[in-house]
Amino acid sequence: MEPMPFIPNPPQIQRARLVLQRFVPAELAYLSILHFAEYYRTLVSKEIGDPTIETTGINVARDRGIRNAITIRNGEKLCLTIGLFTKKEAQSVIWLSVTIKGHDQGWSSYPEDQGTKRGSWTWYTMTFGEDTLAATPERLATNIHAEFATQTHAFAWGRDSEMVKHIQAGQPIKLWAHAR
Question: Does residue 128 sit in the same domain as residue 60?
Fold first, then answer.
């Protein structure tokens, strides 16, 4: 099991900033040194499962020994909600990263699509504040068509990205898994 990284709490960050400000200007302490060291408050939301397709009544995730698996037959499932932000928290987000692990159903009647994302029946979307999904939300990631091996999709967005700019006070970030 991988050790958890050290995540400073707000009082620890404040103390570090005050110590640094004895030696360097406040802007340098916060905007350069602490930012470069990535010494800031971090909100971590753990994965809750491995989205899979249940075929012919067999739960493939359970059979593969995957804990907390999410099985989707048809439709969508909310996989993760990252809380409601205060205005100050929403404005102070400087980095958003998402790692998704999942796979398509592992078989297909369309051999010409195998090995591509064309015709994949599993994909992921992210919404900001909406209680329900839009009719056709933009895909965040798509699994490889008919590939049973688990794939990892990793994304990171900085402060100036459109994804981080979507974060608003009082609106949660939601990650969805889809299958058809």
Answer: yes
83 touches 172 (CB < 8 A) = yes
> How far apart (Å, rounded) are the C-alpha atoms in residues 28 and 148?
49
Handedness of CA 11, 14, 20, 21 (dihedral sign): negative
Identify the bridge partners of residue 156 per DSSP, sorted by sequence position.
97
pLDDT tens, residue by residue, 13-69: 889 999 999 999 988 988 789 888 888 877 766 655 544 433 333 333 344 444 556
Distance of CA 85 to the CA centre of its chain: 16
- Kindly give, in sequence order, each residue whose CB lies less than 8 Å from that of residue 62, ignoring residues fewer than 6 positions away: 69
- Which residues have a Cβ under 8 Å from the Cβ of 94 and sit 6 or more positions away? 35, 40, 158, 159, 164
Question: Can you give the pLDDT at residue 66?
Answer: 46
Q: Residue 155: its pLDDT value, please?
A: 92
CA-to-CA distance for 83 and 72, rounded, in angstroms? 24
37 and 59 together in one domain: no
125 with 160, same domain: the answer is yes
- 11's enclosing H/E stretch is helix 10-21
Instruction: Decide if pLDDT at 174 tops 60.
Output: yes
Say what the pLDDT of residue 9 is: 85
Bridge pairing between strands 70-71 and 95-102? unpaired
